[in-house]
Amino acid sequence: MQFGPPIFEFILCKVFKKKVLYDFDDAIWLKNHSDSNALLSFTKWYTKVNSICGWVTSIQCGNQYLANYAKQFNSNVNIVPTSIDTIKKHNRIIDYDRETITIGWTGSHSTMHYLDFIVPIIKLLEEKYTIQFLVISDRNPAYELTSLQYCKWNKESEIDDLAKIDIGIMPLKNNEWAEGKCAFKGLQYMSLGISTVMSPVGMNNQLIQHGENGFLAESEEEWLENLSLLIENKQLRKKIGLAGNQTIQNQYSVEALKPVYLDLFTKMSSI
After folding, report:
1. Domain harbouring 154, CATH code
2. I want to staple 216 with a disulfide (CB 3.0 to 4.6 A). Which of 58, 190, 200, 243 is the partner?
């Protein structure tokens, strides 16, 4: 938690001398907040991250960017990407034979601003194709799009709702905060066999092999081109989607990463 000074952590690490594994998958040392939670940001103690990194036994980070930061304060830093439960939760493949193509995004309202860049592109796609644009979030978006469909995020129906998406998107701005993100949206899409288009920022570049298991798009033209290509070609959507699913199974599933976690805890016990 970012709230208040690191009193509890100091007592745990320095007074009781407990072995502590510190895990983070965002650039939590940066002051990053939306207008909706600006007041809450005043209660956050961002500099505590540096202290905690120096006190704990070991640190687990979701990507290289986060690990590089943590290594300034602690030599015992490990990179373990975000894992997906492909057995009990993300354990299905979408229907590739649907008539109407749905482009989809999931996330909290605090990150919905990333869609501002995509809205003009969706408007262009609406003029050419019969599509739906599905936003799964905790708050209804205010975009003026004829294709817009809103689905309130619900833990119980999350996988069913995600499975309505044919093309998953993850647009990001190229900044420090985005560099720290660990591509969770992309991991979720790909685990369900959803063809995915993402901004070439941070972890996204490691997850996606462009044209093989997904697409990377930076400019408006690249987004329009890649989304159009996937809308028009069902076989390509299926090929990309299944390749993405295989990537998750092989590299980012709980089963694939189980040996990494076991090795991490073994090393930690010996420190």
Report:
1. 3.40.50.2000
2. 200
